[in-house]
């Protein structure tokens, strides 16, 4: 049975698996001094059309925490949306690795920060008793399945840079956002003012691993040491890197992301036709948030389906992945229809 709890329930996509296995053929230098790591870094520079600095870590919490720590002193603060993964789902990792940089949360419709919300936090205090804002972090796609347009990012980044803040992007679902927007990766990152991107690999079909991409290379100074100290320097780095080759080839990553997004659209369309099933957010990436009666949620669980209800603003979250099958979406809809019809 396919579940909708998270896109990380899916396995490894065949293209990534093939590249992973091919990296296993012979001995290779350790700690990133290998041909695969070099090639993927080059491919990412091609993809982003700029001379960025690339690092590979095991997971998204480390990517975000270490990237934010690289942008902050301990007395600085990070402005994020109140639903941001960095604030709600990283167990204090950003604060820990930055030695105490405080996260300042702001509200915003659809899981998105706005220039006004960011301006309010920046202007809140400027005295010496308050942690000085130094970073704005945006999640793309957001925690509630919406997407920032390039102009929305640019407006926030312009404001941030004018106030001497850096811009970080949590791109755990960057692929889904790019596929949804139909823009170039450069247009939603550095061209819009993003300084550092955590490019998620795990949820788009890699076995594990995220790339930390510094568009402003001055910000990556000593980042390799930071990764090593945090236990995030893979000695067999080639196995973190190689799977990226499989999915960066021929835009496989976008093909998978488009599929996941399309499955979310199919699910949303089906739900919209069920009276009493209210969609909570615009479906712009691969996640669908819906309000369903508690007995329906219980019924779905009793039928063995796994999904989360603790993320975002309540409701059930159904995530689609690279491997989500049409039949699984239709079966989920059928289960919901049947449970809703029970008196
Ligand atoms: C999944 C996710 C991450 C990374 O989580 P890990 O479990 O640490 O890999 C980061 N940000 C967002 C928005 C996520 O959904």
Automatic annotation (TrEMBL):
Keyword Methyltransferase appears in the UniProt entry: no
Catalytic activity as recorded in UniProt: L-threonine = acetaldehyde + glycine; L-allo-threonine = acetaldehyde + glycine
Keyword vocabulary terms for this entry: Lyase, Pyridoxal phosphate
Domain Aromatic amino acid beta-eliminating lyase/threonine aldolase as annotated: residue spans: 4-292
BP-aspect Gene Ontology terms: L-threonine catabolic process
Pfam families (alphabetical): Beta_elim_lyase
Cross-referenced InterPro entries: ArAA_b-elim_lyase/Thr_aldolase (IPR001597), Low_specificity_L-TA_bact (IPR026273), PyrdxlP-dep_Trfase (IPR015424), PyrdxlP-dep_Trfase_major (IPR015421), PyrdxlP-dep_Trfase_small (IPR015422)
Function: Catalyzes the cleavage of L-allo-threonine and L-threonine to glycine and acetaldehyde.
Family label: Belongs to the threonine aldolase family.
Assembly description: Homotetramer.
Protein name, per record: L-threonine aldolase
Lineage of the species this protein comes from: Bacteria, Pseudomonadati, Pseudomonadota, Betaproteobacteria, Rhodocyclales
């Amino acid at each position: 049975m396919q579940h909708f709890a998270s896109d990380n329930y899916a396995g490894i996509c065949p293209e990534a698996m093939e590249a992973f296995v091919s990296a296993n053929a012979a001995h290779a230098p350790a700690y990133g001094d290998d041909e695969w790591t070099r090639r993927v870094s080059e491919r990412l520079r091609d993809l982003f059309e700029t001379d960025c600095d690339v690092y590979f870590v095991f997971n998204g919490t480390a990517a975000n925490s270490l990237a934010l720590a690289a942008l902050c002193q301990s007395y600085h603060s990070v402005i994020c949306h109140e639903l941001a993964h960095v604030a709600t789902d990283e167990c204090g990792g950003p604060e820990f690795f930055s030695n105490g940089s405080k996260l300042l949360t702001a509200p915003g419709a659809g899981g998105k920060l706005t220039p006004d919300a960011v301006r309010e936090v920046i202007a809140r205090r400027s005295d010496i008793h308050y942690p000085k804002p130094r970073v704005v972090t945006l999640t793309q796609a957001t925690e509630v399945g919406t997407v920032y347009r390039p102009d929305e990012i640019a407006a926030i980044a312009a404001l941030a840079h004018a106030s001497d803040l850096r811009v970080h992007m949590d791109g755990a679902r960057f692929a889904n956002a790019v596929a949804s927007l139909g823009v170039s990766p450069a247009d939603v990152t550095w061209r819009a003012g993003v300084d550092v991107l955590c490019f998620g690999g795990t949820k788009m079909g890699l076995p594990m691993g995220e790339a930390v991409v510094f568009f402003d290379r001055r910000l990556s100074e000593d980042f390799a040491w930071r990764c090593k100290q945090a236990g995030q320097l893979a000695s067999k780095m080639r196995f973190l890197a190689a799977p990226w080759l499989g999915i960066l080839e021929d835009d496989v990553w976008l093909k998978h992301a488009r599929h996941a997004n399309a499955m979310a659209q199919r699910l949303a369309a089906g739900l919209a036709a069920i009276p009493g099933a209210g969609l909570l957010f615009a479906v712009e990436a691969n996640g669908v948030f819906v309000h369903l009666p508690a007995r329906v949620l219980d019924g779905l669980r009793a039928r063995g389906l796994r999904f989360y209800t603790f993320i975002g603003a309540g409701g059930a979250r159904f995530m689609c992945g690279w491997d989500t099958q049409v039949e699984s979406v239709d079966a989920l809809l059928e289960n919901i229809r049947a449970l809703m019809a029970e008196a």
